[in-house]
Amino acid sequence: MLRWLLVTMLALLLLQGLTGWLRKLGFGRLPGDFEFKLFGRRWQLPIASTLVLSMIAAGVARLL
C-alpha cells in the first residue's frame, strides 16, 4: 500500500512539473476539458486529457 501511495505522489509531482509543456501540446484544452471560475478561483477538470494520457500510458505499459 505504501509503495502505491509513493508511486502516485511521484506521478502527480511529475505531471505538475510537466503541465506547462503539456499545455503547449494542447492537453487541457481538448473538448471535454472543463474550466470555470468559482469563488474567485479558476478550476479545471481535464477529463478528456486524462483519458488520452491514460490510453498513452496503457499503450506504453503494454509494449514493455
Automatic annotation (TrEMBL):
Cite the Pfam families for this sequence: DUF2905
TM annotation in the entry: 43-63
Q: Which InterPro entries match?
A: DUF2905
UniProt keyword annotations, A-Z: Membrane, Transmembrane, Transmembrane helix
**KW Transmembrane helix (keyword) present:** yes
Name of the molecule in the record: DUF2905 family protein
